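Data deposition worksheet. Section B asks for the primary sequence of the deposited chain exactly as it was used as input, without tags or linkers unless they were present during the calculation. Section C holds the resulting structure in token form. Section D is free text for depositor observations; keep each observation to a single sentence. Incomplete worksheets are returned to the depositor.
Section A, Depositor: J.P.
Section B:
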Amino acid sequence: MTESEVAYPVDIETVAGAVDAGETLTVDVTVENEGSEPGETTVELAAAGDQVDTESVELDGGAAETVTFEWTPGADAVGTVELSAATGTEAAIESVTVEDAPAEFTVDIDAVDEHVSAGGTITALVDVTNEGTLAGTQDIEFRVAGTVRETRRLELDGQAEETVQFTHEVTTAESPESTVRVASEHTEDETSVPVVAGTVTPLRQMGSKGGMGVFGYLVFAGMAILLLPLLPFLAVLKLVDLVTGRGDTAR
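Section C:
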């Protein structure tokens, strides 16, 4: 048997028969060098014909090795999926059932006041995402300084997202800072808001930048448009003042 004719058979050793969408599946693949001389081959794992990963393996003649792959099916993979492991000469196939994942709500505080004064109001914008593929309903808790201030019940379709606004009136007892926390049945997120004397600034957001903003530019443009027709009239008045001497300082 020449080097080019050496066969590298593969076998999928261990794989779960079913997995939830979004769950990572471990796939153990054994590859063997049927030749008498050392050689190298590439093992490829594919799911429904799409490549998942590849691994190069060097084997002595007659030796075998197990390669471990990981595959995480998405929501679009729900159903029966064929997993195939292949070298340049051989292939093995196993079927895996991908099931709908139960609802799993994650929470993330997207925006909150930079600071707030005692007696002022904290406003928090919270992104809630259903990471599962099945619809579900969960309670989202809004806590400030360790106390539940509001509970909001949300119903979301699989892979859906919704932004929820919570507010809380701050007391002097919460100085010098107030801890804001939101929680679902699965995750939670928290941040701290300084309690200071003075006015409250707008919400801070991830990746936001300072500047005049769209509204400011619109106001500036509107004032410029209104004043533009008056410029010739103001110039004439100035000229008349210069000619008549009314622009001179009174003596």
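Section D:
The mean pLDDT is 85.
The longest strand covers residues 50-59.
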